[in-house]
Amino acid sequence: MAENWFCLRSQPKHEHIAAAHLAQLPEIEVYLPRLRFKRSTRQGPAWFTEALFPSYLFARFDLESSLRRVHHARGVIGIVHFGDQWPCVPDQAIEELRARVGSDAVHVIPDEPVPGEKVVISGGPFHELEAVVTRLLPARARIAVLLEFLGRQTMVEVPVTSVVRQKNARSL
């Protein structure tokens, strides 16, 4: 029995469901690298967890004996293949992913802004306004930001929990 890593396709936004069902099957090892990050919403910043590779996950199994069980697991659409070729993912690639993402398969993207960084205010009357962090005020868990409001630049203090780093600010 030759166990190899394979790339599996899941239903959109169901990677975690497929991984959970596959993990219950004997002799199948599952790896689903995910990212946890803060994103701006109308109600304020919220934490989101998404698959590093949307709609894909990895599983290690013997192709001959487990193909049918893996293919029909809940949440799985199929195993990536090209005609009658079933490419294996090298063990080294999975180990490198584990080394970068972490042993628990969830990589948390830090959300603490630094002076000079662009942020987006999330929730409240300044929702969706862009600002630049000028300084951190750790004693009160607030930050001072410079934003352009009504045609002029204004310095404002806001809770650090009400801003999202601009690269994570995709609004919903």
Can you tell me about this structure?
With about 170 residues, the protein is of the alpha+beta class. The protein folds into 2 domains: about 5-110, Alpha-Beta Plaits, CATH 3.30.70.940; about 120-170, Roll (SH3 type barrels). Helix content is about 15%, strand content about 40%. It contains 3 helices and 12 strands, in the order βαββββαβαββββββ. It has helices at about 15-25, 65-70, 90-100, and strands spanning about 5-10, 30, 35-40, 45-50, 55-60, 75-80, 105-110, 120, 130-135, 140-150, 150-160, 165. The strands form 3 sheets. A 5-stranded antiparallel beta sheet has the order 11-10-9-8-12, with no helix packed on it. Strands 2-5-1-6 form a 4-stranded antiparallel beta sheet, covered by helices on one side. Strand 3 (about 35-40) and strand 4 (about 45-50) form a beta hairpin. About 20% of the residues are buried. The model has no long low-confidence stretch (mean pLDDT about 85).
Number of strands: 12
Largest sheet: 5 strands, antiparallel
Estimate the helix proportion, in percent.
10-25%
CATH class of the largest domain: Alpha Beta
Total helices: the number is 3
| Radius of gyration from the alpha-carbon trace, in angstroms | 22 Å
Using the coordinates shown, work out and report the CATH topology of the largest domain.
Alpha-Beta Plaits
What's the assembly state of these chains?
single chain
Beta-strand percentage range: 35-45%
SSE string: EHEEEEHEHEEEEEE
The CATH homologous superfamily of the largest domain corresponds to NusG, N-terminal domain
Low-pLDDT stretches: none
Mean pLDDT: 85
